[in-house]
Design brief:
Length: 376
């Protein structure tokens, strides 16, 4: 791919001054041998070269549970949460030590950042994480990020580090996101079965309309798979961040020319920090179902949601909580901060504002606290 034909998204990745790179478990570990130091060193070689070129880089790395298998004499990734957390507690030390040694070859300091979903769901924690990243990068360190598997429960997990990487990319104000895995690009089917077509550029939803993304890879070590990478790429692109999905074996080219893999063009404007948190990081406490007129007002006209447009409310939320807004087809079209408790809304639903008591004549969700969500 020449410079003349390189897409704007690839150009943005190659020129990014602040970059988030995510690497999956299957690219760093093996089921039988734990952490693969050679593969980790090759990744660090590519990352360090990009840093030496002047880029501030945050590395989101899976692999803690996989790295803990061999030391604990576990033959395969455990299925129960307690054993996963035990493996993570051992593997996290292995992984951090390996990164420190590997980056040390380039006189680069690394800082470990372990996050749970609460660290981005809660607004105060989100701001604290931002400040930590900013200081690490200002001091010239490479933050190495992972989900805090040793304490995260099923209820508060990110689900996979692909989504975590997309959230971190916005949290740190990254110019681009690179997702590295054991698959070299996005395909419209399983490339192992033959006949699958590679998708090189994704400009909008139509480019991935026929894509059938699978689950966990063949190694069984990760939790993401191509479906989670596609979801993470869509999340980041929808928030204005260009994304490159490529194979870990192509890390050097991905981090220099960005001429490999699949590039996702930004499909939305870069959101301010609070609006991104509201739309993509906050944990919804309930759901409001809207009629078609309210959907048009909220999504197309960017107006406040009023009580007459709400057809049904779900959940045990309170005023000030974040809720999902759904259209008549049950698709989530927006997210916002609700101004009423769940117990108050049933009496308001469908009522014209002029018929409500004065103290209840306020928006259900104000336009300033509402974020429409893109389709891509």
């Amino acid at each position: 791919m020449t410079g003349e034909t390189r897409s704007a998204a690839r150009t943005a990745v190659a020129a990014a001054r602040r970059l988030v790179v995510k690497v999956g478990s299957s690219s760093l570990t093996t089921a039988g041998g734990g952490l693969d130091r050679n593969r980790l060193d090759l990744l660090v070689d590519s990352v360090a070269r990009r840093c030496e070129a002047g880029t501030q880089l945050v590395l989101v790395s899976s692999g803690a549970i996989g790295a803990g298998l061999a030391p604990l004499a576990l033959a395969r990734r455990p299925k129960d949460l307690a054993t996963q957390q035990a493996a993570a507690s051992v593997g996290q030390l292995q992984l951090a030590h390996a990164y420190a040694l590997s980056f040390g070859r380039y006189s680069r300091t690394v800082g470990q950042v372990l996050l749970t979903a609460h660290d981005v769901v809660r607004r105060a924690n989100y701001r604290n994480a931002q400040r930590t990243f900013e200081r690490l990068l200002a001091l010239g360190a490479v933050p190495v990020v992972n989900e805090n598997d040793t304490v995260a429960t099923e209820e508060i997990r990110f689900g996979d580090n692909d989504r975590l990487a997309a959230l971190v990319a916005h949290l740190v104000g990254a110019d681009a996101l690179v997702l590295l895995s054991d698959v070299d690009a996005l395909y419209d089917g399983d490339p192992r079965l033959g006949g699958a077509r590679v998708v090189r550029e994704v400009a909008d939803a139509s480019d991935i309309a026929g894509v059938r993304a699978g689950g966990v890879g063949a190694s069984g070590l990760g939790t993401g798979g191509m479906a989670s990478k596609l979801a993470a790429a869509r999340l980041a692109a929808g928030a204005g961040i260009p994304v490159l999905l490529a194979g870990a074996a192509d890390a050097d080219t991905a981090l220099t020319e960005a001429s490999v893999g699949t590039a996702f063009a930004p499909s939305g404007a870069r959101l301010p920090s609070r609006r991104f948190w509201l739309g993509y990081a906050a944990d919804p406490a309930g759901r409001l179902h809207l009629d078609s007129g309210a959907v048009a007002a909220v999504v197309e006209s960017r107006r406040s949601l009023l009580a007459p447009g709400v057809t049904r409310a779900e959940g045990s939320f309170h005023a000030g909580d974040v809720v999902d807004l759904l259209d008549p087809t049950q698709r989530v079209v927006a997210r916002g901060v609700v101004n009423f408790d769940a117990t108050e809304l049933p009496a308001l639903i469908g009522s014209p504002s002029h018929r409500l008591p004065p103290e209840l004549r306020r928006e259900v969700v104000h336009a300033d606290d509402l974020v429409p969500l893109p389709r891509l």
